[in-house]
Target: proline dehydrogenase
Amino acid sequence: MLGPVLLAAARSDGLRRVVASAPVTRPVVDRFVAGETLDSALAAVRSLTDRRLEVTLDHLGEDVTDASEALRARDAYLALAEALAAEGLGERAEMSVKLSAFGQALPGGHEIAHNNVLPVVEAAAAAGTTVTLDMEDHTTVDSTLAVLADLRAKFPQTGAVLQSYLYRTEDDCAALAVAGSRVRLVKGAYREPADVAYQDKHQVDRAYVRCLKTLMAGGGYPMIGSHDPRLVAITEALAARFGRKPGEYEFQMLYGIREAEQHRLAEAGHRMRVYVPYGTDWYGYFMRRLAERPANLAFFARSLVSR
Ligand code: FAD
Model:
């Protein structure tokens, strides 16, 4: 029951101010976020890549309400691409972007987001890496997939994210299970209504497996974005069934979550990519992580009480 409350709170500006200013918040946030600066993110990346992990970096930010904020988001990613090139990290580190940070919700937002993300995708290619478009709430899916299709015409390695909780996703998976495409499959992290999304966890899991089969059987590059041990095991079984070797698909997990499992998979020879968020605008991301797991909230609450 707490999950929907926390997801609603994730979009409350009032609560954002309270949570962000509470002195105890920082250590809890640090578990999920690799610092506020590019330097702190790069330090986290180095320690992960030193241990055979790959990364995708997310400069935190979403739901911008004016065009200048969207340009700041674009510039942060351009600086990131430059840093990845300078550090020679292009092969191990890619970038994840949220189009709502690039202005997607503004009037004329589809074009604004497209125009802002294009130079980032170009800079990524110049740095020897690529970009994956994160997926946000269901109202953005058509726009995000349309931007993806356009970017893929010139940069086919641009990645998509599909969320198994949406009824539409099985069709989207089938459409994207084609040679050259890169699809991160996740369960979905937003609060969605019953007319567009499964509400029952088991139905979300079953839909995930159906989409996973489509992606593993298809010609694209599946990216399994989940910490769920059953889905990890099912992926390994499907890889054997469809003759995919490690490197012909990859696992992805979030920074700070199931770290031992991340290392276990990498040491077993799998390609394992860690999603590394950094920056000052961590509130929405942080609240979604609390919503996914009540134990995280208990951890947060204990740190409040123990002061
Ligand atoms: P769950 O059934 O939620 O969790 C399985 C197990 O994983 C839990 O029992 C627990 O052990 C562990 N676990 C899961 N979440 C947490 C947590 N927060 N803290 C501690 N332990 C946890 N969602 C989107 O909507 N759009 C995106 O673009 C997107 N990108 C993602 C990128 C990556 C790399 C990953 C891993 C997830 C992404 N998500 C995204 C989030 C995703 O939709 C889920 O909300 C999240 O991954 C939790 O689902 P799960 O598959 O891990 O399974």
